[in-house]
Design goal:
Chain lengths: ~300, ~475
């Protein structure tokens, strides 16, 4: 027990506790020898004629006092209470918590066992499994991805069919379990002069048919070769490294010229934290199926 | 220990009876067991009627069915509380507070009017003591027989009488505990579990604990509970005044007490120098708290009126008028008022205030219950994602609506939103909630960019309107905010 700097405090508390209990017992014995005369009043009078008398207490009341003292000794022997003594039962709040946790896990295990061997597409049709999945999502994922799983700036939308790392149930489970770290390096130096960077940005805009300057885009086409290493020569991205598709209308970190220039010049690192230490693999399987179902027409409210 | 006692006040017509001096004693005294004598009469009949009514309700209510479920069930695990047609949620806890307030004010009112009526006639402590005493009498006989039996050595006769009594007490106590748990666990399920004694841990605990409390309090503790444990006993005296009807002994009529020749007629009492009290001590023998009412108002008196029944029976026998011990007010006794004169003082300010407050609270709760909406909605705006721009030039906020259905059939709900120009629900606005169930719905709300620009940045107040299908009452409106980013 680290609360005490030395055993002295522990002994001090133990002695005070025992002395107090024995003191209570002594007080009971001493007072039981006292004599009272029920006809004596204490001299207190209320409402003209209400007098306080000096009646004896019932004996069973004293028995209750004695019982509490006996109980206290029993408690101090069995449970932690006397300074740093751990008690004969070895009980602690931490162990009680662990026991309850283990009990709850055992109960849940039977529920999850049914789902563990079921494939995600089938699980997505199971109302009970999806209710559990939704709750897991609410407690663990919605903080970033939102209650409706549509994310926001920097946090991917999980309900469309656009995936950075792939949208198969297995990949989703992999993403949840180990997390992801997506890095877009600063490419300004590799691309060339600021003019070259501006031209590449125009070319990127042209890939998704966004408003762009056609002449500059044409000039930037050749410089895009340094981007193609990750985003592909056609700009459709690469799920193996989490490089986004630049030809669609999904812009995780913002759309438009300014946002693209910012990304090329400064780069960006985005992290999906690993959940393997927070959730069991059975839970990840269920919440993964729930996430998969969101882009497959299932789990609508 | 302290105790209060109201002694007779200085009144001209009333003789003050001195309180008999008890010898000095230890600070802790063994309480003598009280063996009240059996009594019949007006008030005893009333008490038995109330015993029957309260216990019929207690033992009987868990067995009533309502629409295929237990009519009265407090399902703590599921946190649903069924009271006939009503389904209450933990959020409705205020009704429990209201019930307690009504109970408290009723107690104030009854006590101001007629003293400890509750204690003497309806309190569980009195009611179960009455039942346990009845059982005791069946096995051991009435007061004198019980006193003899207690003093007798342990013979076979004494052993079987005591054993039979205890066994019956324990059986009744266990049944009481069982019925109590039946309000929280469906009682028919408990019956099935009892076949194999497969109760849950908490069911076991409460059946045994409640049973033990009943057995201990009604079998052994009895008046000790009223004298030393009950807080109401003590604070009820604060609600008494000089116009409260209490059980009183008319000292002016009764004193000087004492035995007399059977032939002494009522008309000749004054000449013989005697009061009406023949000092038969019947009033003391029937008293469940073991006091002598002739000493005046005492805190131990629970107002059960057993002494009134006893004294009336004796007065009938000796041909004296009834009412030597009767319900009367202190003022009435002092000034020799008739019953009618005392009753006229019932409508005094204290009673009117208690009654008025009680009536107002009951009406308010009744109206509140009648107008209670059978569903409840909480709106939570997503905290993680504040606001986002979506395709089509719109700002979107996400909310989570927690919808609780407090009716016993599935219900459909429709969500709409208002408060900003062009604001609309972009996700499915309909949801269905199971009977007595609850669901949460992610709701996306959108505002066009231009309208958002005109409204200004920051949190703008909006209102959600939740309509239940087929409900013609005004819909439920919940306030929230819509966040417009810079």
């Amino acid at each position: 027990m680290s609360d005490f700097f030395s055993a002295g405090w522990s002994i001090y508390i133990g002695v005070v506790t025992i002395a107090s209990l024995l003191g209570c017992l002594a007080l009971l014995v001493i007072t039981s020898r006292a004599r009272v005369n029920p006809k004596d009043d204490t001299g207190h009078v209320w409402d003209h004629d209400l007098r306080e008398l000096n009646n004896p207490m019932p004996r069973w009341w004293m028995a209750l006092f004695v019982i509490t003292i006996v109980f206290a000794f029993g408690y101090l022997v069995l449970y932690p209470g006397l300074g740093s003594s751990k008690g004969l039962l070895g009980w602690s709040s931490a162990s009680a918590y662990r026991d309850e946790q283990a009990q709850a896990d055992a109960q849940l295990a039977t529920v999850y066992a049914r789902y563990a061997s079921t494939a995600a597409p089938e699980l997505a049709r199971d109302k009970g499994a999806m209710a559990i999945g939704e709750r897991l999502f609410m407690n663990n994922c919605s903080g970033c991805h939102g209650s409706d799983a549509r994310g926001g700036k920097g946090f991917p939308n999980l309900t469309d069919n656009d995936w950075l790392y792939g949208g198969s149930p297995e990949t989703i489970v992999e993403t949840i379990t180990h997390g992801r770290q997506g890095t877009m390096p600063s490419m300004a130096a590799a691309v060339g002069t600021p003019d070259d960077v501006a031209n590449v940005a125009e070319y990127v805009l042209s890939l998704s048919n966004s408003p762009h300057d056609a002449a500059k885009a044409e000039a930037g086409r050749a410089k895009f070769i340094v981007c193609a290493g990750c985003h592909g020569i056609d700009g459709k991205g690469n799920a193996a490294v989490g490089a986004p598709n630049l030809t669609d209308d999904v812009w995780l970190h913002g759309s438009g010229r300014a946002a693209i220039l910012r990304m090329v010049n400064n780069g960006k690192t985005n992290v999906m934290p690993a959940q393997e230490h927070r959730l069991t693999s059975e839970q990840i399987h269920v919440v993964g199926a729930y996430v998969w179902s969101l882009s497959h027409g299932g789990a609508k409210n | 220990m302290t105790s209060e006692t109201g002694t007779a006040s200085a009144a001209p017509r009333r003789t003050v009876i001195p309180i008999a001096a008890e010898p000095s004693t230890g600070l802790y005294r063994a309480e003598k067991k009280i063996h009240p004598r059996e009594i019949h009469g007006r008030f005893a009949t009333w008490r038995w009627i109330l015993v029957a009514a309260t216990q019929l309700a207690f033992y009987g209510l868990p067995w009533l069915e309502w629409n295929g479920r237990q009519a009265l069930l407090f399902d703590l695990a599921a946190r649903r509380f069924y009271i006939f047609g009503l389904v209450l949620y933990p959020q409705d806890f205020v009704y429990l507070a209201a019930l307690l307030i009504v109970s408290a004010y009723s107690l104030f009112l009854f006590t101001a009017v007629a003293g400890r009526l509750w204690c003497g006639f309806a309190c569980p402590q009195t009611v179960y003591t009455e039942i346990f005493l009845w059982i005791e009498r069946r096995f051991e006989g009435d007061r004198s027989a019980r006193l003899r039996l207690d003093a007798a050595p342990w013979t076979f006769d004494k052993t079987w009488r005591k054993t039979g009594k205890q066994a019956t007490w324990v059986a009744l106590a266990l049944w009481t505990g069982f019925s109590f748990v039946g309000f929280f666990t469906p009682i028919r399920m408990l019956v099935q579990e009892s076949a194999a004694l497969s109760f849950g841990a908490w069911e076991w605990f409460w059946i045994l604990f409640y049973g033990f409390a009943t057995y201990g309090n009604a079998g052994w503790m009895r008046e000790q509970v009223c004298k030393y444990m009950c807080p109401y006993a003590r604070f009820q005296s604060a609600m008494f005044d000089r116009d409260t009807m209490i059980v009183t002994y008319d000292g002016a009529r009764g004193e000087p007490r004492g035995p007399r020749a059977k032939s002494l007629a009522h008309a000749d009492l004054a000449a013989a120098g005697k009061g009406e009290c023949i000092d038969c001590t019947m009033c003391v023998q029937v008293c469940p708290t073991g006091i002598d009412i002739r000493k005046g108002l005492q805190y131990e008196c629970i107002g059960c009126a057993a002494c009134i029944d006893a004294c009336d029976a004796v007065m009938d026998k000796v041909n004296y008028p009834r009412g030597l011990i009767r319900f009367a007010t202190e003022n009435g006794l002092e000034r020799g008022w008739t019953g009618g004169q005392m009753l006229r003082r019932v409508l005094r300010p204290r009673v009117l205030v208690y009654g008025g407050v009680l009536l107002a609270i009951v009406l308010a709760i009744g109206a509140n219950l009648a107008l209670r909406r059978p569903f409840r909605v909480d709106v939570l705006r997503d905290r993680g994602t504040l606001a986002r721009e979506v395709n089509g030039g719109r700002i979107e906020n996400v909310y989570r609506l927690q919808v609780m259905n407090a009716s016993e059939s599935p219900q459909r709900f429709h969500v709409s939103v208002a408060g900003l120009e062009g604001i609309a629900v972009a996700s499915d606005p309909e949801l269905e909630v199971d009977a007595t169930g609850q669901r949460s719905l992610a709701v996306r709300v959108q505002v066009p960019l231009e309208a958002a620009g005109r409204a200004g940045t920051g949190a703008r107040p909006i209102e959600f309107t939740i309509r239940r299908d087929g409900d013609d009452r005004p819909p439920l409106v919940e306030r929230s905010t819509f966040l417009i980013p810079r």
